[in-house]
Amino acid sequence: MSTLQEASQVQLDRLRRAWRGSVLPGFLRWWGGELAALVPVRWRAAFAGGERWYAVERQTDGWRLRRSGESAVLAEVADIDGAEHRVAVLARALSEADPADRRIALVLPAAQVLRRRLVLPVAARDNLRQVVGYDLDRQTPFRAEDIHYGVRELGGGGPEGRFVAELAATPRSMLDPLLDELASLGVAPDRVDVAQGHALAGVDLLPPIRAPRRVDRRRRLNAGLLAVIGLLLFAVMAAWLHNRNAALETMRADVEAMQGDAQRVKALRQRLTESAGASGFLARKKMETAAVLPVLEELTHRLPDDTWLERFTLNASGQLGFQGQSPQAARLIDALKGARTIGDPSFQGTIQADPTSGKERFYMQAKALVPKPDVVPAKAAAAGPATSASAPKPANASTTPAKPAPVQGKETADAHEAR
């Protein structure tokens, strides 16, 4: 065995010991037993598997084959039978088990095996066979090259820092002929053990160089299935991540689309608000700005009939200005008091007499008011003439026919410009 093989074997033995020393094997056996109890007996028998050990023993006149742990003999061949007959009988008896599960142990009589109990340091566990092999000359009455030996760790505890092991040895001169004879019969034992009743003691005297090379196809199949499961698991995880990313991208696209819609709605709402504000501003301006016709109508009704207007202006700020002639211009302030559309009348400059007409020339300023629609009485139209009629007349007005206060063309143009 090469150094690399020995190192790998040491590592495998260390892993096996660590596995056997953990609580997992016991738990898995208990769990498997509980699960197996739930399976019908017929199914349990159909799916039953695992290693099946057979014990082959050398008798005085031949070989005997039985199942490990059972006393019933499966096959027995005598030395006097032909070689082909013996091979066929043993092969037929062993064919009941799957070759992958079949294990054969060559059982030696206890008198032919030397067994000793050893107490070794814990450090020897990692390379137990090699450590014991260095001490064979002291532990056995044979030389190391004259025997086949096996060593195993016992379950019982030893002193602190030590453990208990068992050494089993048998002469090469006795074991090698048996192994050669079994090889001629087509039987390759997996272990050389010692009988312990109908069971096996658990020691292994088979030389590592003569151990059969088994190819466990089911283990390979299981390894392949495990690899496929791993790949499928990876594929499922990758598909899940891909679907998750796709869903995330879809959600992002939907959110971006909704954000665009929200921006458009916001812009439309802003435009609507601005339009509503502008329309409201214009409406308020229209309501707050006095109209020309109500002001002209108010002046027409409140000014006396002998009063004439030469100029009339009304700007956007509601400032009202009118110029004209009247026999008694000072009474015009009283005539305009209480007007709905004219407020704060006052003279601008001084009142001057006109030598041509004999009347007083005046220029007045006022504030155009916006009348409230709900307070306009039905008799407002008749209030103006009544006030004008009740106003005192000059002495020469009794012989002069009443005339309205017309607004000349120039004054009308100024009013339209002001509006």
UniProtKB/TrEMBL annotation:
Keyword Phosphoprotein: no
Matching Pfam families: PilN (PF05137)
Biased composition (Low complexity): 378-406
Name the UniProt record assigns to this protein: General secretion pathway protein L
UniProt superkingdom: Bacteria
Keywords assigned by UniProt, alphabetized: Membrane, Transmembrane, Transmembrane helix
Organism: Luteibacter jiangsuensis
Record keyword Zinc present: no
Family annotation (InterPro entries): ATPase_NBD, Extracell_DNA_Util/SecSys_Comp, PilN
Regions that span the bilayer: 223-242
Region of interest: Disordered: 378-419
